[in-house]
Specification:
By secondary structure, the chain is mainly alpha-helical. The chain has one helix at about 5-65. The N and C termini lie far apart (about 95 Å).
């Protein structure tokens, strides 16, 4: 093994570790985005059901008033 190979190998190992760290971070960010989207969808569905319920109550109140 020559002296030129050792630094190159060391640099390659550092680059590999950086790539693995980037991939891990990207996976965690993607997971967080999916989780956030799921929460937003659930919240939108709750708000939609609440709006439908309120609209039905308003229609019933109007029908009773007539």
């Amino acid at each position: 093994m020559t002296t030129k190979q050792l630094p190159n190998r060391s640099i390659q190992m550092n680059l590999m570790h950086e790539d693995v760290a980037r991939a891990h971070m990207r996976a965690r960010l993607d997971e967080a985005r999916r989780h956030r989207r799921g929460n937003q969808l659930a919240r939108a569905q709750r708000l939609s059901r609440r709006a439908q319920r309120n609209a039905m109550q308003a229609r019933l109140a109007l029908a009773r008033a007539l």
